[in-house]
Design a protein that fits this description.
Helix content: 55-70%
Order of helices and strands: HHHHHHHHHHHEHEEHEE
Number of strands: 5
Radius of gyration: 36 Å
Number of helices: 13
Strand order of the largest sheet: 1-2-3-5-4
Shape: elongated
Structural class: alpha+beta
Length: about 450
């Protein structure tokens, strides 16, 4: 049996992070265009964060008082909420960020003061706002000081020729002068050096400001919108599970409709044609045409049954995945053995997982029978805490690949639709192993 080395979660995260970082590096024109908004965002957010942190600390300092604590805690949470809303407004207005919204518990306007205060206290989002008041103040202080320092230092260096003459010793030994031997330089050269340093600083200032604004925006969004993002993720997960369940039900219904409708009519047609053939007699000129029609009807019936089994056979729904796989293993012309630790019962796994696994096995066995030239095939179903592992191995000629345009490529897409992964190990001369990893979402 093959062994497959898939990227581990840390490698996937690193690759995603690297690609994301590369894509987020803005061009110079974008940086310059956003400089005004970045400066406004950093300049305004710091006093708001400072005020929120100071007031929150003031109120939380009163919690030791039995009388004032029931008022101080809700008041501190409300102040933190208003500060967080101000930060969200700054992000929308100057950074174009629209996904930093919070998920607050709804306050019933008809409740009394005590009930409203209790809703505020038990709201997780408001406590996240309190955390942001502390973290946001520290982050905004750092970014604000760096931004102000870079811009003011650059402007001061450019304006040095204006005020440098009035400095003691004409400014020698101040600022950046310790980096060069300025003792022998005249005032004009000193002015040129200061202006050049200021130009460099102002040229770098937009990039530094962009970096500081991005840093603070990331920190704010990570805290202020973590709960709302989690709710969105949960809603998407529920919607996806509902869609998968609906798809599984629809496939089962389609299989039943095929079995109860076209298949039964084709069987009836075949019986009617056979009766007509007997009535005409073997010597009738039309008998040969009737026999051809009977043969064509049987072929159509076989194809329809194969299609029905590939969609969702009744055994899969009624008896479970293992029973359906055992049934599928009896169809190929080569002997097939099955090894599994999956419970032999209906509903052991979610319907979309069972249907995907059955589809993989059914198609793999079809390929074994048609193309592999194998003398034997092996199926292994392994269930662990996270995944259903499907492995189908044959001792055929090998050479199978997941190339675009092949049936295996379509099979890989089907597995990917349920968050799984499919690989093939098929060296020339065999053996061939089809390996599918399907998350089942159960613990």
């Amino acid at each position: 049996m093959m062994t497959t080395q898939l990227p581990n979660p840390s490698e996937k995260s690193a690759m995603s992070s690297t690609m994301h970082t590369i894509q987020r590096i803005p061009p110079p024109r974008t940086v310059l265009r956003r400089t005004g908004g970045d400066i406004a965002y950093l300049f305004l957010s710091w006093p708001i964060a400072l005020a929120a942190f100071g007031i929150a600390c003031l109120f939380f300092g009163l919690i030791s008082s039995v009388v004032l604590a029931p008022v101080a805690v809700p008041a501190a949470l409300v102040v933190a909420t208003y500060a967080a809303q101000a930060e969200r407004w700054l992000l929308r207005r100057f950074q174009g960020v629209t996904d930093a919204e919070g998920a607050y518990l709804r306050i019933n306007p008809h409740d009394g003061i005590v009930a409203k205060a209790w809703t505020v206290v038990r709201d997780p989002q408001r406590w996240l706002d309190v955390i942001w008041s502390a973290v946001g103040w520290v982050v905004s202080t750092i970014t604000w000081v760096i931004m102000i320092t870079v811009w003011l230092t650059g402007l001061a260096q450019i304006l040095w020729p204006v005020y440098g003459w009035f400095l003691p010793n004409h400014g020698r030994g101040d600022g950046f002068h310790f980096l060069l031997p300025f003792d022998g330089l005249n005032y004009g050269l000193l002015s040129l050096v200061n202006v050049l340093v200021g130009v460099v600083l102002l040229a770098l200032a937009p990039w530094i400001t962009r970096g500081m604004a991005h840093l603070q925006g990331v920190a704010s969004r990570a805290i202020l919108s973590s709960r709302s993002r989690q709710q969105v993720i949960e809603q998407l997960r529920v919607s996806r599970d509902a869609g998968r369940s609906a798809e599984a039900d629809q496939l089962s219904k389609l299989e039943r409709d095929i079995h109860d409708g076209p298949q039964q009519r084709l069987v009836r047609l075949k019986v009617d044609l056979a009766r007509i053939e007997r009535q005409l007699g073997p010597d009738s000129p039309a008998a040969e045409s009737i026999r051809t029609a009977i043969h064509s009807t049987q072929e159509t019936l076989d194809e329809l049954r194969a299609l029905s089994r590939g969609i969702a056979p009744p055994t899969l729904t009624e008896l479970g995945l293992v029973a359906a796989v055992r049934q599928a293993a009896t169809r190929p012309t080569v002997p097939v053995s099955l090894t599994t630790n999956v419970p032999e019962m209906a509903g052991a796994l979610p319907p979309h997982v069972e249907q995907a696994a059955y589809y993989v096995i059914s198609e793999a066995l079809t390929n074994v029978a048609k193309h592999s030239g194998a003398g034997r095939a092996y199926i292994e179903l392994t269930l662990d805490e996270r995944d259903l592992v499907v492995a189908v191995t044959d001792d055929g000629v090998g050479g199978a690949a997941l190339g675009k345009g092949t049936g295996l490529a379509g099979l890989a897409e089907r597995v990917r639709s349920v968050d799984g992964a499919l690989t093939v190990d098929s060296p020339a001369g065999g053996p061939t192993t089809l390996f599918a990893l399907i998350p089942h979402g159960r613990r």
